[in-house]
Amino acid sequence: MRTTHFFMSITNILALTFILLACSKSKDSPILATENLYDIQQEPQVTEEKRAKYNYLALGDSYTVGQNVDASESFPAQLENLLEKNLNAKINTDMVAATGWRTDNLYDGIKSSSLEAVYDFVTLLIGVNNQYQGQPFSQYEEEFPLLLERALKFTGNDPSKVIVISIPDYGYTPFGENGGMQAISKDIDTYNAFAESTASLKNVAYVNITDISRQGLDQPELVADDGLHPSGKAYKMFVDRIAPFIVSALKD
Questions:
Q1: Are the beta carbons of 206 and 197 closer than 8 angstroms?
Q2: Other CB atoms closer than 10 Å to residue 17's CB: what's the count?
Q3: Architecture in CATH of 52-251
Q4: What pLDDT shows up at residue 32?
Q5: Residues 2, 8, 10, 12, Cα dihedral to 10°
Q6: With contact defined as beta carbons under 8 Å apart, do 121 and 76 qualify?
Q7: In what order do the strands lie in the sheet with 121-124?
């Protein structure tokens, strides 16, 4: 009986040992799995896809600054935003512009500014203050071509990357309506005709947005609160016309 009891005890001990080993093994497995999962979660996350970067130079006056609208509503800011979305790119914008600037002021502003050597695209919109301040038209005829030459140099003399924008017609605003709308419009047409012909000679795109500004009296929402400058909505309409030319140039 003692012998039988002895062998039964050994058998029980061996069985118990086997069970403990099996349990120990089953407990180890989840720990290893958890450690592997932890290691995977600690791996660096995938970085954001690198986007193309373009440098943009906006040259002009109050229409480029976005006088009397929020900075984000100016046409250069809206153009930057639109291009970043459509091209999945980063646009770095520089601006040489100020309210009240004529062609000579812009030329001096360019000379005194620290600018990048080469830009991927440049917009040029200038001349309304030459007209408004009663400067002789001959000044514009002399200085606008010089400004266009400077704009071209900023792109490495690539005419496909320069956009000349027509001058808005402030005659179709509450301010202009009371200041001789017909005479203003006639002058603006003269300035724009010269700008367009000069751009054509240099194979530079000319974008007409003047007709949009001439809806200002019928659509007051296109005029800023000052009754003179375009609103953010009007600038968006400008951008919708300008952007395709730039997208085409950058994709070539």
A1: no
A2: 10
A3: 3-Layer(aba) Sandwich (3.40)
A4: 33
A5: -140
A6: no
A7: 89-97, 52-60, 121-124, 162-165, 205-207
